[in-house]
Write a structure and sequence with these properties.
This protein folds into two domains: 5-179, no CATH class; 182-245, Tetratricopeptide repeat domain (Serine Threonine Protein Phosphatase 5, Tetratricopeptide repeat), CATH 1.25.40.10. 71% of the residues lie in helices and 0% in strands. It is elongated. 40% of the residues are buried. Helix 2 (27-52) packs parallel to helix 8 and helix 7 runs antiparallel to helix 8. The chain is mainly alpha-helical. The chain has 13 helices and no strands. The chain has helices spanning 5-17, 27-52, 56-69, 74-84, 103-110, 116-129, 133-139, 147-159, 163-179, 181-201, 205-218, 223-235, 239-245.
Length: 250
Amino acid sequence: MTHSLKTVAKEEDNRVAGCGLQVASLPCDFYHHYYHYQSSTQYLWLAEALRVLGRNSEALVAYSNAIFQDHFNQEALSGKAQLETGEKRGRVIPSYDKHPLRDAEFCVSTGQMPDATTKLHDKAVAGCLAGSYAQVLSLIPPDTTHSNSRFLLGKCWFHLQRYGKAADNFIEAIRISHMHHDQYHHHASTQHFLRGSAFFYGGKIDLAIVDFTKALDLNRHNQEARQARARAYKAKGNLQLAREDDPAIA
């Protein structure tokens, strides 16, 4: 059973907060976590394909990227450790499940309506789960620019033991998904800054600091969030932290 996207986003929020404060996830958080888990999944499968191909140095980079996207990706952590110690093993099919298989699940989480591309992808997912890999390869255009569909093509080639073609599709899926990554970071950063401002002016300073900090984690160049956090620290009486964010704080 896959994790609920809302559940894993909430768990991550609590880890980021680190102070016991219960901060509700924003809609943008589902996008943010979705892309991190998507990338972690894609890099993990790429690492496994590269490992079978004997391209171990590239596989190590892919494992590291999977871990960077989700520090709690135990399969990537284990695979990287095994490769570094020279442990031999056969083909491994990843079971990492934080990234939803079906696009419709993500659409529901974010209040979107599934479109034609989503419906085609989810139909193809059903075929992949049934082991009808050739059917999926005929259903999805080989030059699709839909990241999850390109990733699904890679998985089908992987199951068919065509690891070179699998790796090529995983690499392209990662490239497509990363094209959108920065804009989601900036969008989420802005949303956390806005909610933090609402908390600040509502007198909820601790919650404001959590949101401003997350805004900066998402986009360290968000100067509005940095200055706002400085004001929040000042309101808490912590001038040292306030001046680290904004030296102009008196």
